[in-house]
Amino acid sequence: MLTLVVGGFLGSGKTTTIINTGKYLVGKGHKVAIIVNEIGEIGIDGDIINKFGFDTKEITNGCICCSLKMGLRSTVITLFNSYKPDVLIIEPTGIAFPNVIKREVELMDLGEGAEIAPLVTLIDGSRFKHLLKEMKHFSKRQIEDAEILAINKVDLMDRMQIPIVAESVQQLNKKAKVIQISGNTTDEKFYDFMNLILPEDMLNGFQRTALQQAGTAETAKPSIAPANTISLISKKNMDMIRDEQETENSIDASGVATYAAEYRINGRLDIDKAKKIANDVMTGIKSEVLKHSPEFIGHVKMFLDSDVDTVKMNFTAYFEDPKLELIETGKNETPILKILSAISNMEKADLVNIVDSFTTDVFKRYGIGIEKIDPHHHHEHSPHH
What is 2-251's CATH number? Predict the structure, then answer.
Protein backbone atom coordinates (compact mmCIF):
# COMPACT_ATOMS: atom_id res chain seq x y z
CA MET A 1 0.00 0.00 0.00
CA LEU A 2 1.38 3.35 -1.07
CA THR A 3 0.11 6.21 1.13
CA LEU A 4 -0.26 9.72 -0.29
CA VAL A 5 -1.07 12.70 1.99
CA VAL A 6 -2.60 15.68 0.16
CA GLY A 7 -2.84 18.78 2.36
CA GLY A 8 -3.61 22.43 1.86
CA PHE A 9 -5.57 25.23 3.48
CA LEU A 10 -9.36 25.34 3.51
CA GLY A 11 -10.79 25.70 0.01
CA SER A 12 -7.53 24.91 -1.79
CA GLY A 13 -9.24 22.24 -3.92
CA LYS A 14 -8.10 19.08 -2.13
CA THR A 15 -11.29 17.03 -2.57
CA THR A 16 -11.62 17.77 -6.29
CA THR A 17 -7.94 17.02 -6.87
CA ILE A 18 -8.18 13.78 -4.89
CA ILE A 19 -11.23 12.65 -6.86
CA ASN A 20 -9.39 13.20 -10.14
CA THR A 21 -6.30 11.49 -8.72
CA GLY A 22 -8.41 8.51 -7.69
CA LYS A 23 -10.06 8.31 -11.11
CA TYR A 24 -6.62 8.48 -12.76
CA LEU A 25 -5.29 5.64 -10.59
CA VAL A 26 -8.36 3.47 -11.09
CA GLY A 27 -7.99 4.02 -14.82
CA LYS A 28 -4.47 2.63 -14.50
CA GLY A 29 -5.83 -0.49 -12.84
CA HIS A 30 -5.03 0.40 -9.23
CA LYS A 31 -7.22 -0.17 -6.19
CA VAL A 32 -7.76 3.10 -4.29
CA ALA A 33 -8.96 3.95 -0.79
CA ILE A 34 -9.38 7.45 0.67
CA ILE A 35 -9.43 8.75 4.23
CA VAL A 36 -11.16 12.10 4.69
CA ASN A 37 -10.66 14.21 7.81
CA GLU A 38 -13.59 16.55 8.40
CA ILE A 39 -14.05 19.43 10.81
CA GLY A 40 -16.69 18.80 13.45
CA GLU A 41 -18.91 15.74 13.61
CA ILE A 42 -20.55 16.08 10.19
CA GLY A 43 -18.91 14.42 7.17
CA ILE A 44 -19.29 16.16 3.82
CA ASP A 45 -16.32 15.52 1.54
CA GLY A 46 -16.56 11.76 2.01
CA ASP A 47 -20.10 11.86 0.60
CA ILE A 48 -18.86 13.30 -2.67
CA ILE A 49 -15.88 10.96 -2.92
CA ASN A 50 -18.13 7.95 -2.28
CA LYS A 51 -20.24 9.02 -5.24
CA PHE A 52 -17.28 8.32 -7.51
CA GLY A 53 -17.03 4.73 -6.33
CA PHE A 54 -14.08 4.98 -3.95
CA ASP A 55 -14.05 3.31 -0.57
CA THR A 56 -13.73 6.08 1.99
CA LYS A 57 -13.43 6.35 5.74
CA GLU A 58 -14.36 9.61 7.43
CA ILE A 59 -12.68 10.82 10.60
CA THR A 60 -14.69 13.67 12.10
CA ASN A 61 -14.91 15.78 15.25
CA GLY A 62 -11.38 17.10 15.36
CA CYS A 63 -8.06 17.07 13.60
CA ILE A 64 -6.19 13.87 12.84
CA CYS A 65 -2.90 15.63 13.48
CA CYS A 66 -3.76 16.08 17.13
CA SER A 67 -6.74 14.61 18.98
CA LEU A 68 -7.67 11.74 16.68
CA LYS A 69 -4.37 10.01 16.01
CA MET A 70 -5.70 6.71 17.33
CA GLY A 71 -8.65 7.01 14.96
CA LEU A 72 -6.32 7.57 12.03
CA ARG A 73 -4.08 4.70 13.03
CA SER A 74 -6.87 2.17 13.43
CA THR A 75 -8.45 3.28 10.14
CA VAL A 76 -5.18 2.92 8.20
CA ILE A 77 -4.53 -0.49 9.71
CA THR A 78 -8.03 -1.70 8.93
CA LEU A 79 -7.69 -0.61 5.31
CA PHE A 80 -4.22 -2.17 5.06
CA ASN A 81 -5.40 -5.51 6.46
CA SER A 82 -8.91 -5.81 5.05
CA TYR A 83 -9.26 -3.74 1.90
CA LYS A 84 -5.63 -3.99 0.76
CA PRO A 85 -5.60 -0.94 -1.57
CA ASP A 86 -2.71 -0.27 -3.89
CA VAL A 87 -2.90 3.43 -3.00
CA LEU A 88 -4.30 5.06 0.14
CA ILE A 89 -4.96 8.81 -0.15
CA ILE A 90 -5.35 10.83 3.05
CA GLU A 91 -7.05 14.24 2.88
CA PRO A 92 -6.43 16.17 6.13
CA THR A 93 -8.69 19.04 7.05
CA GLY A 94 -7.49 22.39 5.73
CA ILE A 95 -6.48 23.48 9.22
CA ALA A 96 -4.20 20.51 9.82
CA PHE A 97 -0.43 20.33 9.64
CA PRO A 98 -0.12 17.63 6.93
CA ASN A 99 3.47 16.73 7.76
CA VAL A 100 2.30 15.55 11.20
CA ILE A 101 -0.13 13.16 9.50
CA LYS A 102 2.66 11.85 7.29
CA ARG A 103 4.91 11.32 10.31
CA GLU A 104 2.07 9.50 12.07
CA VAL A 105 1.75 7.06 9.15
CA GLU A 106 5.51 6.54 9.14
CA LEU A 107 5.45 5.77 12.87
CA MET A 108 2.91 3.03 12.29
CA ASP A 109 5.75 0.98 10.79
CA LEU A 110 3.37 -1.06 8.66
CA GLY A 111 6.26 -3.11 7.37
CA GLU A 112 6.85 -4.69 3.98
CA GLY A 113 4.32 -3.71 1.37
CA ALA A 114 3.76 -0.23 2.81
CA GLU A 115 5.38 2.91 1.45
CA ILE A 116 4.65 6.64 1.69
CA ALA A 117 4.78 9.15 -1.15
CA PRO A 118 6.19 12.70 -0.90
CA LEU A 119 3.97 15.10 1.05
CA VAL A 120 1.82 17.23 -1.27
CA THR A 121 0.40 20.62 -0.29
CA LEU A 122 -2.08 22.42 -2.55
CA ILE A 123 -2.08 26.23 -2.67
CA ASP A 124 -5.02 28.17 -4.04
CA GLY A 125 -3.15 30.50 -6.35
CA SER A 126 -6.17 32.75 -6.76
CA ARG A 127 -6.17 33.51 -2.99
CA PHE A 128 -2.43 33.35 -2.29
CA LYS A 129 -1.82 36.98 -1.32
CA HIS A 130 -5.01 37.05 0.77
CA LEU A 131 -4.05 33.82 2.49
CA LEU A 132 -0.63 35.16 3.47
CA LYS A 133 -2.19 38.36 4.74
CA GLU A 134 -4.95 36.74 6.80
CA MET A 135 -3.25 33.47 7.83
CA LYS A 136 0.46 34.20 7.41
CA HIS A 137 1.98 32.03 10.15
CA PHE A 138 -0.31 29.05 9.61
CA SER A 139 -0.17 29.00 5.80
CA LYS A 140 3.62 29.43 5.79
CA ARG A 141 3.92 26.42 8.09
CA GLN A 142 1.91 24.29 5.65
CA ILE A 143 4.06 25.48 2.74
CA GLU A 144 7.38 25.05 4.51
CA ASP A 145 6.60 21.46 5.53
CA ALA A 146 5.68 20.24 2.03
CA GLU A 147 7.84 18.19 -0.34
CA ILE A 148 5.72 18.98 -3.41
CA LEU A 149 3.82 22.28 -3.70
CA ALA A 150 1.03 22.41 -6.26
CA ILE A 151 -0.27 25.86 -7.13
CA ASN A 152 -3.91 25.07 -7.82
CA LYS A 153 -6.69 26.95 -9.65
CA VAL A 154 -4.32 28.53 -12.14
CA ASP A 155 -7.31 28.72 -14.49
CA LEU A 156 -8.75 31.39 -12.18
CA MET A 157 -5.56 33.46 -12.03
CA ASP A 158 -4.30 36.37 -14.08
CA ARG A 159 -1.65 34.78 -16.29
CA MET A 160 0.82 37.49 -15.33
CA GLN A 161 0.43 36.56 -11.67
CA ILE A 162 1.16 32.84 -12.06
CA PRO A 163 5.00 33.08 -12.27
CA ILE A 164 5.02 35.67 -9.47
CA VAL A 165 3.09 33.37 -7.13
CA ALA A 166 5.25 30.40 -8.18
CA GLU A 167 8.44 32.29 -7.33
CA SER A 168 7.01 33.47 -4.00
CA VAL A 169 6.03 29.91 -3.08
CA GLN A 170 9.45 28.61 -4.04
CA GLN A 171 11.12 31.22 -1.85
CA LEU A 172 9.07 30.05 1.12
CA ASN A 173 10.21 26.45 0.56
CA LYS A 174 13.34 26.22 -1.56
CA LYS A 175 13.63 22.45 -1.19
CA ALA A 176 10.17 21.61 -2.52
CA LYS A 177 9.23 20.93 -6.12
CA VAL A 178 6.71 23.57 -7.30
CA ILE A 179 4.17 22.71 -10.00
CA GLN A 180 1.08 24.41 -11.40
CA ILE A 181 -2.26 22.63 -11.79
CA SER A 182 -5.98 23.13 -12.11
CA GLY A 183 -7.43 20.38 -9.97
CA ASN A 184 -10.85 20.38 -11.66
CA THR A 185 -9.41 19.45 -15.06
CA THR A 186 -7.31 16.52 -16.23
CA ASP A 187 -5.10 18.33 -18.70
CA GLU A 188 -1.37 18.12 -19.43
CA LYS A 189 -0.55 19.95 -16.18
CA PHE A 190 -2.56 17.41 -14.22
CA TYR A 191 -0.74 14.46 -15.81
CA ASP A 192 2.60 16.14 -15.09
CA PHE A 193 1.43 16.44 -11.49
CA MET A 194 0.52 12.74 -11.38
CA ASN A 195 3.86 11.71 -12.85
CA LEU A 196 5.63 13.81 -10.24
CA ILE A 197 3.82 12.56 -7.13
CA LEU A 198 3.14 9.00 -8.31
CA PRO A 199 5.62 8.06 -11.07
CA GLU A 200 4.46 5.26 -13.36
CA ASP A 201 7.48 3.05 -12.60
CA MET A 202 6.82 3.40 -8.87
CA LEU A 203 3.16 2.46 -9.27
CA ASN A 204 3.88 -0.46 -11.56
CA GLY A 205 6.65 -1.76 -9.35
CA PHE A 206 4.49 -1.41 -6.29
CA GLN A 207 1.59 -3.19 -7.98
CA ARG A 208 3.84 -6.11 -8.97
CA THR A 209 5.05 -6.41 -5.38
CA ALA A 210 1.47 -6.35 -4.08
CA LEU A 211 0.43 -9.09 -6.49
CA GLN A 212 3.41 -11.24 -5.48
CA GLN A 213 2.54 -10.79 -1.82
CA ALA A 214 -1.09 -11.65 -2.48
CA GLY A 215 0.01 -14.85 -4.21
CA THR A 216 1.94 -15.99 -1.14
CA ALA A 217 -0.40 -14.56 1.49
CA GLU A 218 -1.26 -17.92 3.02
CA THR A 219 2.34 -18.79 3.84
CA ALA A 220 3.75 -15.33 4.37
CA LYS A 221 4.26 -13.92 7.84
CA PRO A 222 1.89 -11.00 8.51
CA SER A 223 3.71 -7.69 8.05
CA ILE A 224 1.77 -5.88 10.78
CA ALA A 225 -0.18 -6.69 13.90
CA PRO A 226 -3.93 -7.43 13.72
CA ALA A 227 -6.17 -4.42 13.34
CA ASN A 228 -7.58 -4.66 16.84
CA THR A 229 -4.21 -4.32 18.59
CA ILE A 230 -2.08 -1.26 19.37
CA SER A 231 1.31 -3.01 19.25
CA LEU A 232 2.23 -1.28 16.01
CA ILE A 233 4.69 1.24 17.43
CA SER A 234 7.10 1.33 20.31
CA LYS A 235 6.44 3.04 23.65
CA LYS A 236 9.02 5.65 22.67
CA ASN A 237 7.06 6.51 19.55
CA MET A 238 3.80 6.52 21.51
CA ASP A 239 5.34 9.09 23.85
CA MET A 240 6.41 11.16 20.84
CA ILE A 241 2.84 11.13 19.53
CA ARG A 242 1.42 12.18 22.88
CA ASP A 243 3.91 15.04 23.01
CA GLU A 244 2.85 16.12 19.53
CA GLN A 245 -0.79 16.01 20.54
CA GLU A 246 -0.05 18.61 23.20
CA THR A 247 2.02 20.91 20.98
CA GLU A 248 0.58 20.44 17.50
CA ASN A 249 -3.05 21.42 17.94
CA SER A 250 -3.43 22.96 14.52
CA ILE A 251 -7.07 23.97 15.01
CA ASP A 252 -6.09 26.26 17.86
CA ALA A 253 -3.01 27.45 15.97
CA SER A 254 -5.06 28.41 12.93
CA GLY A 255 -7.36 30.83 14.73
CA VAL A 256 -10.21 29.60 12.50
CA ALA A 257 -13.73 29.25 13.87
CA THR A 258 -15.40 26.04 12.68
CA TYR A 259 -18.94 24.68 12.78
CA ALA A 260 -20.71 21.82 11.02
CA ALA A 261 -24.43 21.08 11.06
CA GLU A 262 -26.78 18.55 9.50
CA TYR A 263 -30.55 18.82 9.02
CA ARG A 264 -33.27 16.44 7.92
CA ILE A 265 -35.70 18.02 5.45
CA ASN A 266 -39.38 17.38 6.14
CA GLY A 267 -41.33 17.43 2.92
CA ARG A 268 -40.70 17.48 -0.80
CA LEU A 269 -38.12 19.79 -2.32
CA ASP A 270 -37.82 20.06 -6.10
CA ILE A 271 -34.48 20.96 -7.65
CA ASP A 272 -35.41 24.52 -8.64
CA LYS A 273 -36.55 25.37 -5.12
CA ALA A 274 -33.46 23.68 -3.70
CA LYS A 275 -31.24 25.96 -5.80
CA LYS A 276 -33.08 29.07 -4.58
CA ILE A 277 -32.94 28.00 -0.94
CA ALA A 278 -29.25 27.12 -1.14
CA ASN A 279 -28.44 30.47 -2.73
CA ASP A 280 -30.44 32.41 -0.13
CA VAL A 281 -28.83 30.57 2.79
CA MET A 282 -25.27 30.94 1.50
CA THR A 283 -25.68 34.56 0.46
CA GLY A 284 -27.12 35.39 3.86
CA ILE A 285 -24.36 33.57 5.73
CA LYS A 286 -21.64 35.33 3.76
CA SER A 287 -23.22 38.76 4.22
CA GLU A 288 -23.40 38.32 7.99
CA VAL A 289 -19.91 36.77 8.28
CA LEU A 290 -18.45 39.86 6.58
CA LYS A 291 -19.70 41.98 9.47
CA HIS A 292 -17.54 39.95 11.86
CA SER A 293 -14.50 39.23 9.66
CA PRO A 294 -14.35 41.69 6.70
CA GLU A 295 -11.36 40.02 4.99
CA PHE A 296 -12.00 36.40 5.95
CA ILE A 297 -10.36 33.37 4.38
CA GLY A 298 -11.81 29.91 4.94
CA HIS A 299 -14.47 27.68 3.45
CA VAL A 300 -18.24 27.47 3.76
CA LYS A 301 -19.80 24.61 1.83
CA MET A 302 -23.32 23.25 1.63
CA PHE A 303 -24.88 20.09 0.22
CA LEU A 304 -28.66 20.24 -0.12
CA ASP A 305 -30.61 17.24 -1.39
CA SER A 306 -33.65 17.85 -3.54
CA ASP A 307 -36.09 15.05 -4.34
CA VAL A 308 -33.71 14.19 -7.16
CA ASP A 309 -30.02 15.21 -7.17
CA THR A 310 -28.04 17.46 -4.84
CA VAL A 311 -27.16 21.15 -4.89
CA LYS A 312 -23.60 22.01 -3.83
CA MET A 313 -22.63 25.58 -2.96
CA ASN A 314 -19.45 27.02 -1.51
CA PHE A 315 -17.31 30.12 -1.09
CA THR A 316 -13.77 30.46 0.26
CA ALA A 317 -13.04 34.17 0.76
CA TYR A 318 -14.59 37.58 1.35
CA PHE A 319 -14.22 38.61 -2.30
CA GLU A 320 -15.78 35.45 -3.75
CA ASP A 321 -19.46 34.92 -4.59
CA PRO A 322 -21.01 31.57 -3.62
CA LYS A 323 -20.67 29.06 -6.46
CA LEU A 324 -23.43 26.59 -7.31
CA GLU A 325 -22.91 23.11 -8.72
CA LEU A 326 -25.43 20.34 -9.40
CA ILE A 327 -24.43 16.81 -8.42
CA GLU A 328 -26.36 13.94 -10.00
CA THR A 329 -27.18 11.64 -7.12
CA GLY A 330 -30.49 10.23 -8.24
CA LYS A 331 -33.56 9.96 -6.04
CA ASN A 332 -33.04 10.99 -2.41
CA GLU A 333 -35.42 9.07 -0.15
CA THR A 334 -34.40 11.05 2.94
CA PRO A 335 -33.22 14.51 1.84
CA ILE A 336 -30.46 15.96 3.99
CA LEU A 337 -28.85 19.40 4.30
CA LYS A 338 -25.22 19.59 5.42
CA ILE A 339 -23.26 22.78 6.06
CA LEU A 340 -19.61 23.01 7.02
CA SER A 341 -18.19 26.42 7.89
CA ALA A 342 -14.67 27.55 8.76
CA ILE A 343 -13.90 31.26 8.95
CA SER A 344 -10.70 33.09 9.91
CA ASN A 345 -10.61 35.66 12.73
CA MET A 346 -14.10 35.02 14.03
CA GLU A 347 -15.65 33.78 17.27
CA LYS A 348 -17.20 30.33 17.02
CA ALA A 349 -20.33 31.35 18.94
CA ASP A 350 -21.04 34.03 16.33
CA LEU A 351 -20.50 31.58 13.48
CA VAL A 352 -22.82 28.98 15.03
CA ASN A 353 -25.54 31.58 15.50
CA ILE A 354 -25.24 32.85 11.92
CA VAL A 355 -25.38 29.39 10.31
CA ASP A 356 -28.25 28.10 12.43
CA SER A 357 -30.39 31.24 12.21
CA PHE A 358 -30.05 31.83 8.47
CA THR A 359 -30.66 28.17 7.70
CA THR A 360 -33.85 27.88 9.74
CA ASP A 361 -35.16 31.31 8.70
CA VAL A 362 -34.76 30.67 4.95
CA PHE A 363 -36.46 27.26 5.07
CA LYS A 364 -39.27 28.72 7.15
CA ARG A 365 -39.73 31.47 4.56
CA TYR A 366 -40.16 28.81 1.87
CA GLY A 367 -42.62 26.88 4.02
CA ILE A 368 -40.41 23.81 4.43
CA GLY A 369 -39.69 22.25 7.79
CA ILE A 370 -36.21 21.12 8.77
CA GLU A 371 -34.97 19.22 11.80
CA LYS A 372 -31.44 19.50 13.12
CA ILE A 373 -29.85 16.08 13.50
CA ASP A 374 -27.90 15.18 16.61
CA PRO A 375 -24.51 13.98 15.29
CA HIS A 376 -24.31 11.45 18.14
CA HIS A 377 -27.60 9.84 17.08
CA HIS A 378 -27.44 7.17 14.40
CA HIS A 379 -29.59 7.89 11.38
CA GLU A 380 -29.99 6.68 7.85
CA HIS A 381 -28.58 8.71 5.00
CA SER A 382 -29.80 9.11 1.49
CA PRO A 383 -28.19 6.73 -1.01
CA HIS A 384 -25.19 8.94 -1.76
CA HIS A 385 -24.31 9.59 1.87
Answer: 3.40.50.300
